[in-house]
Amino acid sequence: MTGRPLLLRPLAQADIDDILAYCRAEGGPSLATAFAKQLEAALHTLATHAAIGSRRYADLLGIPGLRSWPIKRSAYLIFYVDEKEKIDIWRILHGRRDLAALLGNDDPEEGDLEETSVSE
C-alpha cells in the first residue's frame, strides 16, 4: 500500500537530527538505529493512515487540523497536519516538553518543505 507524500518542515528535520544525536551520545549507535526504525514505522503509518492521529493538541493549542502520533518505545510525538495531497510534518517532540510554547510559535506557512518517502 502506497501512501501520500510526507513533507518534513525544516524544524521537523532538525528535531530528527537532534534526537538521533542525543540517542547516539546517550545510548550509542544501536539506540539511534532503534529509534530511527521506530520513527520510520510511525511515518509509514501516517503516510497510509493519516487520520489515525489524535486531535488533542489541535483543540488545546487552537491549531486547526493539527494531529499527533506517538513513536513506539519512546516518549516522542510526531505533530502533523493531514492535507489533501500530502502529510505536513511540523515537529517531532518529546511529550514532556512545553508543547504549547514549541508548537504555538510555528507558522505553517513558514519554511521550505522537504519531501521524504518511507519504504513499504
TrEMBL record:
Keyword tags: Toxin-antitoxin system
A Pfam family this chain is assigned to: ParE_toxin
Top-level taxon: Bacteria
Membership in a protein family: Belongs to the RelE toxin family.
Protein name: Type II toxin-antitoxin system RelE/ParE family toxin
